[in-house]
Amino acid sequence: MTWLHKFWEGVLKPLxxxxxxxxxxxxxxxxxGPDTQVLLVTSRxxxxxxxxxxxxxxxxxxxxxxxxxxxxEAGVRKAEVDPEPVGSYCYGKVRKSGAIDPVCTTVxxxxxxxxxDEFPEIHERTREWVSPQEASxxxxxxxxxxxxxxx
Length: 151
Hints:
By secondary structure, the protein is an alpha+beta fold. It has helices spanning 3-17, 62-74, 132-138, 142-150; strands spanning 21-30, 37-42, 49-50, 53-54, 76-81, 87-94, 100-115, 127-130. Strands 1, 2, 3, 4, 5, 6, 7 and 8 form an eight-stranded mixed sheet that branches.
């Protein structure tokens, strides 16, 4: 076995074959038709604009986990949660070690009817209602951009 083959088998191949991590996200909206707006929040570490998302939560299905993240990260107190996902997107999650983990995020739509003035991550994030077009321009993930333009 050559050194290149050993390197492929021992280092590179496992990186490409490792399972993707899973997250659930909340596409929080209000209004209808041309008046539809999307709720974006900033990430805690980089300050980039994102939609609320997080890891699976024991005892909750994907839609319920997305609603929980919307509460913690954006203060969504009341919303009609679609039980079926509206789409998904994948991205590379950069860890503190510098490693990049592939993450696939399933997105659920929440039609928001009430936002709280106080919520768990209020001092760590900024939230803002914007048009789907503006939201697609602010987020970085190409698949999420496309999803935002479809609503």
